[in-house]
Amino acid sequence: MKQRLGIAQALLGNPELLILDEPTNGLYPSGIIEMRELIKSFPEKYGITVLISSHILSEIELIATHVGIINKGKLLFQGTMDDLRAKQKAEIQLEVEPRADAEAYFNEIGLRFKGDQHFLYLDANLQPFKLNRELIMNGFEVNQLMVKKHSLEEIFLSMTSGKEEIL
User: Fold this and answer.
1) Residue 141 is inside which H or E element, if any?
2) Which of 19, 50, 124, 134 is the most exposed place for a label (fewest CB within 10 A)?
């Protein structure tokens, strides 16, 4: 109720700009959804620009149309969510059996990949349906194959760590 009351107070003056700090903090899941929809309605319904400061990037990803990423006082990115997503490097996430044989097969045909405990990751420029067909025709069991785009949180961590591996 405090969050709602604070926003109601801020709206009394009919502002052009509304600055919110962690507007969904402390709300129940249903309250978060209501608050998110309310905030998203302000620009269109009332012509209000909303600036949100938050460390809950998954929430920002669901609300924002534009983002700014700041690290140590330096603006690293400013633009639309679509522009930020376009900069990211998507990957094919693959779970295949037997994994060691698949890795050997990829090395043999010169296909670059990386892996973690669970998955192999390949360049998303490959056509997933062709990769799937190729693996199956060569006797591999494909348990999972999907194009994985990175979340705002993953992009933020990559940009602020200085590695920018996924961008």
Assistant:
1) strand 141-148
2) 19
Report CA-CA distances (Å) from 92 to 22, 113, 122. 34, 10, 5
Angle among Cα 139, 142, 144 to the nearest 5 degrees reads 175
Strands (DSSP E) along 91-139, which ranges?
A: 91-97, 113-115, 120-123
Taking a C-beta distance cutoff of 8 angstroms, is the pair 81, 64 a contact? yes
The one-letter code for the residue type at 97 is E
Q: Which H helix or E strand runs over 51?
A: strand 49-53
User: pLDDT by residue (tens digit) across 98-123?
Assistant: 999 999 999 998 888 988 889 999 88
Q: Considering only CA atoms, give the Rg of the chain.
A: 21
- In 3D space, the residue among 166, 146, 149 whose CA is nearest the CA of residue 157 turns out to be 166
Q: How far is CA 24 from CA 20, 54, 78, 165, in A?
A: 10, 9, 23, 31
Q: Quick one: tokens of 10?
A: 């801020």
Q: In sequence order, what E strands does the chain have? A: 17-21, 49-53, 66-71, 74-80, 91-97, 113-115, 120-123, 141-148
Q: Check pLDDT > 90 for residue 90.
A: no
* Residue 167 pLDDT level (bands cut at 50, 70, 90): very low
